[in-house]
Amino acid sequence: MRDLAADEKECGDYTEGFPADDAADDENLPSFTVEGVWGERLDKVLAGLMPDVSRARLQKLIESGSVEVNGVVCEKVRAKVAEGDEIQLLEEPRLDEALAFTPQEDVEFETVYEDDTIIVINKPAGLVVHPGAGNPDGTLLNGLLWHYPELKEVPRAGIVHRLDRDTTGLMVVARTLAAQTNLVRQLQERTVKREYWAITIGTAAPEFTVEVPIGRDPRNRTRMKGFPGSTGVRAKYARTRARTVGWSEFEGIPVSWVACRLDTGRTHQIRVHLTGEDLPLVGDQVYRGRAPGIAVKMENALDFHRQALHASRLGLIHPKTGETMEWFVPPEDDMIELMNELYFGPWDRPVTVFERDILPQI
């Protein structure tokens, strides 16, 4: 079993290909004649011709030798095609491995909204999203398969993005393959709005943007690290926009309530970006900043032993109806108590701090 739990992330997106199911009859395999295109990438053209199939899955089909261009197998996703070229798929985009990583299990979580296309849940602290090494069961995926058995027909039980074990808040789950593909594309195109509340040590600026690539820390592969000015194999581009809701202090130590919007979804993105700004999250066991002694002191004095991070708001375009939808959930009781102790309030404000006329929707 792949260790997917090791890659838990703040609303990290699934952009890799999905597994495939049984092969279709050869006479029904898709074929196309390219029109209105000159010198465009093969994978991009196929994505336009087959909008219900993720681009990543199409790339895997090409690389596996399952696509012909003008009667010749083409294994290069960057190969150029043009007007009049004939594209033939030798294999139906399909599921080729077990979809449910582990059996269904009665794991509790709150459902905020559901219809026949999507489910929006409020993930509690301590719940791992995916089974993996050290977490073979008791995960959100297990619970989804228990409460919604039909999700066994959808890759990863419909999960399209993740939250860290101890990060709480909103996640969307797709109930159909078409909805999953649509949501993945929305995440890639940044039409999904994701807002987080973070309680940090330090005095945050009223408004700021962090644009620092993120990659694995070479000294500790379980951690992520910011690599300013570096992109590619070592680190991936990452951008977080932030606005401070309030300031306070605890025993002479400044603290801030920061609302963050993700423009990308890298592993531990908010935690890494804020720590890089000398704003480590209260209670974070991994990223303690340049003054770890203060971080430990705050954690123990406030008796808060997980990162103070909550996915408060989620907005998206409904995959089936095209309607713009948005949800808000307050933090869990322990984080509410933390905010009250730090004199942050009212904590339950339902309106986003990101005004649409100042920051565009993402």
TrEMBL record:
CDD domains according to UniProt: PseudoU_synth_RluA_like, S4
EC number: 5.4.99.-
InterPro entries according to UniProt: PsdUridine_synth_cat_dom_sf, PsdUridine_synth_RluA-like_CS, PsdUridine_synth_RluC/D, PsdUridine_synth_RsuA/RluA, RluA_PseudoU_synthase, S4_RNA-bd, S4_RNA-bd_sf
Superkingdom of the organism of origin: Bacteria
Biased segments, Basic and acidic residues type: 1-12
Pfam families per UniProt: PseudoU_synth_2, S4
Any GO molecular function: RNA binding
The entry's keywords: Isomerase, RNA-binding
Annotated GO biological process: enzyme-directed rRNA pseudouridine synthesis
Region (Disordered): 1-27
Start and end residues of each RNA-binding S4 domain: 40-100
Catalytically driven reaction(s): uridine(1911/1915/1917) in 23S rRNA = pseudouridine(1911/1915/1917) in 23S rRNA; a uridine in RNA = a pseudouridine in RNA
Active site: D164
Uppermost EC category: isomerase
PANTHER family in alphabetical order: MITOCHONDRIAL RNA PSEUDOURIDINE SYNTHASE, RIBOSOMAL LARGE SUBUNIT PSEUDOURIDINE SYNTHASE D
Function: Responsible for synthesis of pseudouridine from uracil.
Family: Belongs to the pseudouridine synthase RluA family.
Name listed for the protein in its UniProt record: Pseudouridine synthase
Organism: Sutterella megalosphaeroides
Annotated gene: rluD
